[in-house]
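note to self — DONT lose this again. spent like an hour looking for the file last time. sequence + predicted structure for the chain T wanted, 58 res
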Amino acid sequence: MNSQPKPPVPTLASSPAGQRSRIPSHNLLQGASSVEIEHAGQCYLLRVTRENKLILTK
């Protein structure tokens, strides 16, 4: 069993009206150079380039 609690995920409900939620990239990547994101049954790859920029590909 996983004994470590997961950190809360920011939601739009917790953001002031008219503002978007902001999630630091290190929270998504957790030290990795890439992470897969599943959305609407599709898999996307979010990766950090050598120039420290983010690229999202399908």
